[in-house]
Amino acid sequence: MAAETHKDELIWVPKEDEEERARVDIYKYIFGFVEMAVVKCAIELGIADAIESHGRPMSLLELSSALGCAAPALHRIMRFLVNRKLFKEIRKENVQDSEQPSLYAQTALSRLLLRSGEKSMATFVLMESSPPMLAPWHGLSARVKTEVTSLAPSPFEVANGKDLWSYCEANPHHSQLFNESMACNARVTVEAILEGCSDVFDGISSIVDVGGGNGTALRMLVRACPWIRGINFDLPHVVSVALKSEGVEHVGGDMFKFVPKADAAFLMSVLHDWEDDECIQILKKCREAIPGDKGKVIMVECVIEENNNNVEEKHEELELKDVGLFLDMVMIAHTNKGKERTLEEWAYVLAQAGFNRYNIRAINAIYSIIEAFPN
Ligand SMILES: C[S@@+](CC[C@H](N)C(=O)[O-])C[C@H]1O[C@@H](n2cnc3c(N)ncnc32)[C@H](O)[C@@H]1O
Ligand SMILES: COc1ccc(-c2cc(=O)c3c(O)c(O)c(O)cc3o2)cc1
Questions:
Q1: 334 close to ligand 2 (CB < 6 Angstrom)
Q2: Which of 216, 231, 217, 227 is nearest to 300 (CA)?
Protein backbone atom coordinates (compact mmCIF):
# COMPACT_ATOMS: atom_id res chain seq x y z
CA MET A 1 0.00 0.00 0.00
CA ALA A 2 1.30 3.42 -0.87
CA ALA A 3 -0.98 5.09 1.67
CA GLU A 4 -2.65 4.32 4.99
CA THR A 5 -6.36 4.20 5.66
CA HIS A 6 -7.18 4.92 9.32
CA LYS A 7 -9.51 2.17 10.46
CA ASP A 8 -12.13 4.27 12.25
CA GLU A 9 -12.04 7.52 10.30
CA LEU A 10 -11.44 6.16 6.78
CA ILE A 11 -9.12 9.09 6.10
CA TRP A 12 -6.68 8.65 3.26
CA VAL A 13 -3.26 9.77 4.45
CA PRO A 14 -0.68 9.81 1.67
CA LYS A 15 2.74 8.58 2.71
CA GLU A 16 5.71 10.86 2.30
CA ASP A 17 7.20 8.93 -0.63
CA GLU A 18 3.93 9.21 -2.56
CA GLU A 19 4.02 12.98 -2.15
CA GLU A 20 7.64 13.12 -3.23
CA ARG A 21 6.84 11.03 -6.31
CA ALA A 22 3.89 13.34 -7.07
CA ARG A 23 6.14 16.43 -6.94
CA VAL A 24 8.20 14.87 -9.75
CA ASP A 25 5.36 13.21 -11.69
CA ILE A 26 3.43 16.46 -12.08
CA TYR A 27 6.06 17.62 -14.59
CA LYS A 28 5.08 14.74 -16.91
CA TYR A 29 1.80 16.62 -17.36
CA ILE A 30 3.15 20.17 -17.25
CA PHE A 31 5.67 19.36 -20.00
CA GLY A 32 3.81 16.41 -21.55
CA PHE A 33 3.84 18.03 -25.00
CA VAL A 34 7.64 18.43 -25.00
CA GLU A 35 8.34 14.74 -25.71
CA MET A 36 5.98 14.81 -28.69
CA ALA A 37 7.51 18.04 -30.02
CA VAL A 38 11.10 16.80 -29.73
CA VAL A 39 10.27 13.45 -31.33
CA LYS A 40 8.58 15.34 -34.19
CA CYS A 41 11.74 17.46 -34.49
CA ALA A 42 13.90 14.30 -34.61
CA ILE A 43 11.77 12.90 -37.45
CA GLU A 44 11.82 16.18 -39.39
CA LEU A 45 15.61 16.41 -39.04
CA GLY A 46 15.97 12.75 -40.06
CA ILE A 47 18.21 11.79 -37.09
CA ALA A 48 17.31 8.06 -37.10
CA ASP A 49 17.63 7.93 -40.91
CA ALA A 50 21.11 9.50 -40.80
CA ILE A 51 22.42 7.02 -38.20
CA GLU A 52 20.83 4.11 -40.08
CA SER A 53 22.38 5.07 -43.42
CA HIS A 54 25.76 5.73 -41.74
CA GLY A 55 25.69 2.06 -40.73
CA ARG A 56 27.30 2.61 -37.31
CA PRO A 57 26.98 5.01 -34.34
CA MET A 58 27.83 8.66 -35.12
CA SER A 59 29.62 11.42 -33.26
CA LEU A 60 27.94 14.81 -32.79
CA LEU A 61 30.11 16.33 -35.51
CA GLU A 62 29.34 13.55 -37.99
CA LEU A 63 25.63 13.82 -37.22
CA SER A 64 25.47 17.61 -37.40
CA SER A 65 27.30 17.68 -40.71
CA ALA A 66 25.12 14.88 -42.16
CA LEU A 67 21.96 16.75 -41.11
CA GLY A 68 23.20 20.26 -41.87
CA CYS A 69 22.48 21.32 -38.27
CA ALA A 70 24.17 23.56 -35.73
CA ALA A 71 26.16 21.21 -33.45
CA PRO A 72 25.41 22.99 -30.12
CA ALA A 73 21.63 22.92 -30.66
CA LEU A 74 21.73 19.34 -31.93
CA HIS A 75 23.77 18.35 -28.86
CA ARG A 76 20.90 19.59 -26.63
CA ILE A 77 18.29 17.76 -28.68
CA MET A 78 20.36 14.53 -28.51
CA ARG A 79 20.93 14.94 -24.74
CA PHE A 80 17.15 15.10 -24.28
CA LEU A 81 16.47 12.13 -26.59
CA VAL A 82 19.17 10.02 -24.89
CA ASN A 83 17.70 10.90 -21.48
CA ARG A 84 14.28 9.72 -22.72
CA LYS A 85 15.97 6.50 -24.02
CA LEU A 86 15.09 7.17 -27.65
CA PHE A 87 18.76 7.01 -28.65
CA LYS A 88 21.80 5.57 -26.85
CA GLU A 89 25.00 7.42 -26.14
CA ILE A 90 28.06 5.20 -26.29
CA ARG A 91 31.04 6.45 -24.31
CA LYS A 92 34.27 4.64 -25.04
CA GLU A 93 35.44 3.16 -21.76
CA ASN A 94 39.12 3.14 -20.79
CA VAL A 95 39.80 6.02 -23.12
CA GLN A 96 41.61 8.70 -21.15
CA ASP A 97 41.55 11.14 -24.02
CA SER A 98 38.80 13.66 -23.17
CA GLU A 99 38.82 14.73 -26.83
CA GLN A 100 37.43 11.33 -27.81
CA PRO A 101 33.79 12.03 -28.75
CA SER A 102 30.93 9.85 -27.54
CA LEU A 103 28.77 8.30 -30.22
CA TYR A 104 25.00 8.27 -30.78
CA ALA A 105 23.43 4.91 -31.55
CA GLN A 106 20.03 3.68 -32.60
CA THR A 107 17.58 1.89 -30.24
CA ALA A 108 14.52 -0.24 -31.03
CA LEU A 109 12.43 2.88 -30.35
CA SER A 110 14.44 5.22 -32.60
CA ARG A 111 14.14 2.72 -35.48
CA LEU A 112 10.36 3.29 -35.35
CA LEU A 113 11.15 6.94 -36.23
CA LEU A 114 12.77 6.02 -39.57
CA ARG A 115 10.83 7.83 -42.27
CA SER A 116 10.15 4.70 -44.30
CA GLY A 117 10.04 0.95 -43.83
CA GLU A 118 7.47 -1.64 -42.77
CA LYS A 119 7.74 -0.78 -39.06
CA SER A 120 7.97 3.03 -39.33
CA MET A 121 5.59 5.01 -37.10
CA ALA A 122 7.05 8.38 -38.18
CA THR A 123 4.04 9.44 -40.26
CA PHE A 124 1.71 8.69 -37.35
CA VAL A 125 3.77 11.00 -35.06
CA LEU A 126 3.75 13.73 -37.73
CA MET A 127 -0.01 13.38 -38.20
CA GLU A 128 -0.89 13.52 -34.48
CA SER A 129 1.44 16.50 -33.98
CA SER A 130 0.06 18.41 -37.00
CA PRO A 131 -1.90 21.62 -36.22
CA PRO A 132 -5.35 20.33 -37.29
CA MET A 133 -5.01 17.27 -35.03
CA LEU A 134 -3.53 19.17 -32.07
CA ALA A 135 -5.92 22.14 -32.08
CA PRO A 136 -9.03 20.10 -31.07
CA TRP A 137 -7.40 19.09 -27.77
CA HIS A 138 -7.98 22.62 -26.46
CA GLY A 139 -11.71 21.93 -26.71
CA LEU A 140 -11.80 18.72 -24.66
CA SER A 141 -13.37 20.12 -21.48
CA ALA A 142 -15.95 22.11 -23.47
CA ARG A 143 -16.89 18.89 -25.26
CA VAL A 144 -17.27 16.96 -22.02
CA LYS A 145 -19.69 19.64 -20.82
CA THR A 146 -21.76 19.83 -24.03
CA GLU A 147 -21.81 16.24 -25.31
CA VAL A 148 -25.23 15.63 -23.75
CA THR A 149 -26.91 17.94 -26.23
CA SER A 150 -25.48 15.89 -29.13
CA LEU A 151 -25.97 18.78 -31.54
CA ALA A 152 -22.78 20.47 -30.36
CA PRO A 153 -19.96 20.12 -32.91
CA SER A 154 -16.93 17.95 -32.05
CA PRO A 155 -13.70 19.61 -30.86
CA PHE A 156 -12.22 18.78 -34.30
CA GLU A 157 -15.05 20.63 -36.05
CA VAL A 158 -14.83 23.60 -33.67
CA ALA A 159 -11.09 23.89 -34.38
CA ASN A 160 -11.10 23.15 -38.12
CA GLY A 161 -14.55 24.15 -39.35
CA LYS A 162 -15.39 20.65 -40.69
CA ASP A 163 -15.55 17.11 -39.36
CA LEU A 164 -12.44 14.94 -39.84
CA TRP A 165 -13.67 13.17 -43.01
CA SER A 166 -14.84 16.38 -44.75
CA TYR A 167 -11.59 18.08 -43.70
CA CYS A 168 -9.61 15.22 -45.32
CA GLU A 169 -11.72 15.49 -48.48
CA ALA A 170 -10.95 19.22 -48.72
CA ASN A 171 -7.24 18.85 -47.85
CA PRO A 172 -5.60 16.09 -49.92
CA HIS A 173 -2.26 16.56 -48.14
CA HIS A 174 -3.85 15.97 -44.72
CA SER A 175 -5.88 13.08 -46.12
CA GLN A 176 -2.68 11.40 -47.30
CA LEU A 177 -1.03 12.02 -43.91
CA PHE A 178 -4.06 10.51 -42.13
CA ASN A 179 -4.33 7.47 -44.43
CA GLU A 180 -0.60 6.76 -44.25
CA SER A 181 -0.75 7.02 -40.43
CA MET A 182 -3.57 4.50 -40.33
CA ALA A 183 -1.44 2.31 -42.63
CA CYS A 184 1.38 2.36 -39.97
CA ASN A 185 -1.12 0.86 -37.51
CA ALA A 186 -2.61 -1.48 -40.09
CA ARG A 187 0.82 -3.02 -40.76
CA VAL A 188 1.46 -3.92 -37.10
CA THR A 189 -2.13 -4.98 -36.43
CA VAL A 190 -2.50 -7.23 -39.50
CA GLU A 191 0.83 -8.88 -38.63
CA ALA A 192 -0.60 -9.62 -35.14
CA ILE A 193 -3.87 -10.94 -36.66
CA LEU A 194 -2.01 -13.26 -39.03
CA GLU A 195 0.23 -14.47 -36.19
CA GLY A 196 -2.55 -14.90 -33.62
CA CYS A 197 -5.67 -16.03 -35.48
CA SER A 198 -5.18 -16.41 -39.23
CA ASP A 199 -7.89 -19.13 -39.14
CA VAL A 200 -10.58 -16.41 -39.15
CA PHE A 201 -9.93 -16.22 -42.91
CA ASP A 202 -10.35 -19.96 -43.54
CA GLY A 203 -13.13 -20.78 -46.00
CA ILE A 204 -13.56 -17.14 -47.11
CA SER A 205 -13.17 -16.46 -50.82
CA SER A 206 -13.90 -12.72 -50.79
CA ILE A 207 -13.60 -9.93 -48.23
CA VAL A 208 -14.78 -6.33 -48.30
CA ASP A 209 -12.67 -4.04 -46.09
CA VAL A 210 -15.21 -1.38 -45.07
CA GLY A 211 -13.44 1.95 -44.41
CA GLY A 212 -10.26 0.24 -45.59
CA GLY A 213 -8.33 3.50 -46.11
CA ASN A 214 -5.49 3.20 -48.64
CA GLY A 215 -5.85 -0.60 -48.78
CA THR A 216 -2.76 -1.52 -46.74
CA ALA A 217 -4.57 -4.07 -44.51
CA LEU A 218 -6.24 -5.83 -47.43
CA ARG A 219 -2.99 -5.92 -49.42
CA MET A 220 -1.32 -7.76 -46.51
CA LEU A 221 -4.29 -10.11 -45.98
CA VAL A 222 -4.52 -11.05 -49.66
CA ARG A 223 -0.76 -11.60 -49.82
CA ALA A 224 -0.96 -13.97 -46.82
CA CYS A 225 -4.22 -15.67 -47.98
CA PRO A 226 -3.99 -15.61 -51.80
CA TRP A 227 -7.28 -17.52 -52.19
CA ILE A 228 -9.12 -14.36 -51.04
CA ARG A 229 -10.37 -11.69 -53.46
CA GLY A 230 -10.28 -8.29 -51.76
CA ILE A 231 -12.53 -5.26 -52.14
CA ASN A 232 -11.18 -2.14 -50.49
CA PHE A 233 -14.18 0.10 -49.82
CA ASP A 234 -13.83 3.70 -48.64
CA LEU A 235 -14.95 7.22 -49.48
CA PRO A 236 -14.35 8.11 -53.17
CA HIS A 237 -11.57 10.65 -52.45
CA VAL A 238 -9.69 8.04 -50.39
CA VAL A 239 -9.80 5.14 -52.86
CA SER A 240 -9.07 7.40 -55.84
CA VAL A 241 -5.48 7.84 -54.55
CA ALA A 242 -5.03 4.35 -53.01
CA LEU A 243 -2.18 2.19 -54.31
CA LYS A 244 -3.12 -0.47 -56.84
CA SER A 245 -2.27 -4.02 -55.80
CA GLU A 246 -2.91 -7.49 -57.18
CA GLY A 247 -6.02 -9.19 -55.84
CA VAL A 248 -7.46 -5.94 -54.44
CA GLU A 249 -10.15 -3.89 -56.15
CA HIS A 250 -10.82 -0.35 -54.86
CA VAL A 251 -14.46 0.72 -54.64
CA GLY A 252 -15.61 4.20 -53.58
CA GLY A 253 -18.88 4.80 -51.72
CA ASP A 254 -20.66 5.57 -48.47
CA MET A 255 -20.93 2.70 -45.97
CA PHE A 256 -24.11 4.22 -44.51
CA LYS A 257 -25.82 3.65 -47.87
CA PHE A 258 -24.28 0.50 -49.33
CA VAL A 259 -21.52 -2.06 -48.75
CA PRO A 260 -20.24 -4.20 -51.69
CA LYS A 261 -21.09 -7.91 -51.47
CA ALA A 262 -18.50 -10.41 -50.19
CA ASP A 263 -18.27 -13.55 -48.02
CA ALA A 264 -17.00 -11.46 -45.11
CA ALA A 265 -16.97 -7.80 -44.15
CA PHE A 266 -13.83 -6.60 -42.35
CA LEU A 267 -13.90 -3.38 -40.31
CA MET A 268 -10.73 -2.20 -38.59
CA SER A 269 -10.65 1.06 -36.56
CA VAL A 270 -13.95 2.07 -38.14
CA LEU A 271 -16.84 1.48 -35.72
CA HIS A 272 -15.05 3.30 -32.87
CA ASP A 273 -15.35 6.52 -34.94
CA TRP A 274 -19.16 6.41 -34.62
CA GLU A 275 -21.91 6.46 -31.98
CA ASP A 276 -24.07 3.40 -31.30
CA ASP A 277 -26.90 4.20 -33.74
CA GLU A 278 -24.42 4.88 -36.53
CA CYS A 279 -22.53 1.62 -35.79
CA ILE A 280 -25.85 -0.25 -35.94
CA GLN A 281 -26.59 1.30 -39.37
CA ILE A 282 -23.13 0.36 -40.69
CA LEU A 283 -23.39 -3.18 -39.32
CA LYS A 284 -26.85 -3.62 -40.88
CA LYS A 285 -25.37 -2.63 -44.27
CA CYS A 286 -22.60 -5.18 -43.71
CA ARG A 287 -25.23 -7.80 -42.84
CA GLU A 288 -26.96 -7.15 -46.18
CA ALA A 289 -23.63 -7.53 -47.99
CA ILE A 290 -22.70 -11.01 -46.68
CA PRO A 291 -24.36 -14.40 -47.25
CA GLY A 292 -26.90 -15.27 -44.52
CA ASP A 293 -25.59 -18.83 -44.09
CA LYS A 294 -21.79 -18.70 -44.21
CA GLY A 295 -21.10 -14.96 -44.00
CA LYS A 296 -19.47 -13.10 -41.13
CA VAL A 297 -18.33 -9.69 -40.03
CA ILE A 298 -14.78 -9.41 -38.69
CA MET A 299 -14.20 -6.34 -36.51
CA VAL A 300 -10.78 -5.25 -35.29
CA GLU A 301 -11.38 -2.94 -32.35
CA CYS A 302 -10.46 -2.25 -28.73
CA VAL A 303 -12.41 -3.99 -26.01
CA ILE A 304 -11.99 -1.71 -23.03
CA GLU A 305 -11.81 -3.12 -19.52
CA GLU A 306 -13.85 -0.96 -17.19
CA ASN A 307 -11.70 -1.78 -14.13
CA ASN A 308 -8.18 -1.42 -15.48
CA ASN A 309 -7.15 1.13 -12.89
CA ASN A 310 -5.97 -0.94 -9.98
CA VAL A 311 -2.80 1.04 -9.31
CA GLU A 312 -1.27 -1.69 -7.15
CA GLU A 313 -1.05 -4.04 -10.12
CA LYS A 314 -0.07 -1.53 -12.75
CA HIS A 315 3.39 -1.23 -14.24
CA GLU A 316 5.07 2.15 -14.51
CA GLU A 317 5.38 1.79 -18.28
CA LEU A 318 2.57 2.15 -20.73
CA GLU A 319 0.91 -1.19 -21.48
CA LEU A 320 -0.91 -2.19 -24.69
CA LYS A 321 -4.30 -2.09 -22.95
CA ASP A 322 -3.64 1.50 -21.78
CA VAL A 323 -3.34 2.58 -25.43
CA GLY A 324 -7.06 1.87 -25.85
CA LEU A 325 -7.81 4.49 -23.19
CA PHE A 326 -5.61 7.02 -25.03
CA LEU A 327 -7.48 6.20 -28.21
CA ASP A 328 -10.78 6.75 -26.39
CA MET A 329 -9.64 10.32 -25.62
CA VAL A 330 -8.66 10.74 -29.31
CA MET A 331 -12.22 9.72 -30.20
CA ILE A 332 -13.61 12.58 -28.06
CA ALA A 333 -11.22 15.10 -29.62
CA HIS A 334 -11.36 14.02 -33.27
CA THR A 335 -14.76 12.45 -33.91
CA ASN A 336 -18.36 13.51 -33.40
CA LYS A 337 -19.49 10.72 -31.10
CA GLY A 338 -16.87 7.99 -31.49
CA LYS A 339 -15.74 5.92 -28.51
CA GLU A 340 -13.86 2.81 -27.48
CA ARG A 341 -16.29 0.18 -26.16
CA THR A 342 -16.47 -2.35 -23.35
CA LEU A 343 -17.67 -5.91 -23.89
CA GLU A 344 -21.20 -4.95 -22.80
CA GLU A 345 -21.24 -1.98 -25.20
CA TRP A 346 -20.17 -4.21 -28.11
CA ALA A 347 -22.82 -6.80 -27.17
CA TYR A 348 -25.51 -4.10 -27.32
CA VAL A 349 -24.45 -2.73 -30.73
CA LEU A 350 -24.11 -6.22 -32.25
CA ALA A 351 -27.47 -7.41 -30.93
CA GLN A 352 -29.25 -4.28 -32.23
CA ALA A 353 -27.73 -4.89 -35.67
CA GLY A 354 -29.04 -8.47 -35.63
CA PHE A 355 -25.84 -10.32 -34.75
CA ASN A 356 -26.70 -12.56 -31.82
CA ARG A 357 -23.75 -14.89 -32.17
CA TYR A 358 -20.23 -13.54 -31.83
CA ASN A 359 -16.84 -14.35 -30.35
CA ILE A 360 -13.94 -12.20 -29.24
CA ARG A 361 -10.30 -13.19 -29.59
CA ALA A 362 -7.27 -11.45 -28.12
CA ILE A 363 -4.22 -10.78 -30.29
CA ASN A 364 -0.86 -9.18 -29.52
CA ALA A 365 -2.11 -5.67 -30.31
CA ILE A 366 -4.19 -2.94 -28.74
CA TYR A 367 -7.08 -4.45 -30.66
CA SER A 368 -9.10 -7.67 -30.35
CA ILE A 369 -10.87 -9.57 -33.12
CA ILE A 370 -14.66 -9.69 -32.89
CA GLU A 371 -16.25 -12.21 -35.26
CA ALA A 372 -20.02 -11.81 -35.63
CA PHE A 373 -22.36 -14.15 -37.48
CA PRO A 374 -25.75 -13.28 -38.98
CA ASN A 375 -27.32 -16.57 -37.83
C1 LIG B 1 -9.79 5.35 -38.74
S2 LIG B 1 -9.77 5.08 -40.43
C3 LIG B 1 -9.41 3.34 -40.53
C4 LIG B 1 -8.73 2.96 -41.83
C5 LIG B 1 -8.36 1.47 -41.96
N6 LIG B 1 -9.47 0.59 -41.71
C7 LIG B 1 -7.20 1.14 -41.04
O8 LIG B 1 -7.44 0.62 -39.94
O9 LIG B 1 -6.05 1.40 -41.41
C10 LIG B 1 -11.51 5.13 -40.81
C11 LIG B 1 -11.79 5.06 -42.30
O12 LIG B 1 -13.21 5.15 -42.50
C13 LIG B 1 -13.41 5.88 -43.70
N14 LIG B 1 -14.78 6.39 -43.76
C15 LIG B 1 -15.31 7.45 -43.07
N16 LIG B 1 -16.60 7.62 -43.41
C17 LIG B 1 -16.90 6.68 -44.35
C18 LIG B 1 -18.06 6.37 -45.09
N19 LIG B 1 -19.20 7.08 -44.90
N20 LIG B 1 -18.02 5.36 -45.98
C21 LIG B 1 -16.88 4.64 -46.15
N22 LIG B 1 -15.73 4.89 -45.47
C23 LIG B 1 -15.74 5.90 -44.59
C24 LIG B 1 -12.35 6.96 -43.63
O25 LIG B 1 -12.12 7.55 -44.89
C26 LIG B 1 -11.17 6.17 -43.08
O27 LIG B 1 -10.37 5.65 -44.12
C1 LIG C 1 -2.87 -0.45 -33.68
O2 LIG C 1 -2.80 0.77 -33.04
C3 LIG C 1 -3.64 1.77 -33.43
C4 LIG C 1 -4.64 1.57 -34.34
C5 LIG C 1 -5.45 2.62 -34.71
C6 LIG C 1 -5.26 3.87 -34.19
C7 LIG C 1 -6.11 4.99 -34.58
C8 LIG C 1 -7.37 4.79 -35.08
C9 LIG C 1 -8.17 5.90 -35.41
O10 LIG C 1 -9.32 5.72 -35.88
C11 LIG C 1 -7.64 7.20 -35.20
C12 LIG C 1 -8.39 8.37 -35.51
O13 LIG C 1 -9.63 8.31 -36.03
C14 LIG C 1 -7.81 9.61 -35.28
O15 LIG C 1 -8.48 10.73 -35.55
C16 LIG C 1 -6.52 9.71 -34.75
O17 LIG C 1 -5.99 10.93 -34.54
C18 LIG C 1 -5.78 8.56 -34.44
C19 LIG C 1 -6.35 7.32 -34.68
O20 LIG C 1 -5.61 6.23 -34.39
C21 LIG C 1 -4.22 4.07 -33.29
C22 LIG C 1 -3.43 3.02 -32.90
A1: yes
A2: 217
